[in-house]
Amino acid sequence: MKEIILESTIRCPVCGHMKTETMPTDSCRFFYECESCSTVMRPKAGDCCVFCSYGSVKCPSIQQGSACRHE
User: Fold this and answer.
1) Along the chain (71 residues), what's the average pLDDT of each consecutive run of 10 residues?
2) Fewer CB near the last or first residue (10 Å), C or N of the chain?
């Protein structure tokens, strides 16, 4: 079985601020607020969560080949 990566670096599409976060394994994050400019990020069309849209690593659900689990 493939090892699941739990850390992803999110990059704000507005100001470019980056922060490494630990992704939850029991749900997907649909909203994420940039701590620098307060932009609230939402998934891009076709993505299940903010980590899939703006993170350096896709969420654990997608890494496992499963459906996403919204918070």
Assistant:
1) 89 98 89 98 93 95 76 48
2) N
Distances (CA, A) of 43 to 20, 34, 46, 65: 17, 14, 8, 18
Pairwise CA distance, residues 63 & 61, whole Å: 5
Place of tokens 């507005």: 14
* pTM of the predicted model as reported, rounded to 2 decimal places: 0.86
- For residue 37, report the phi and psi dihedrals to the nearest 5 degrees: -115, 0
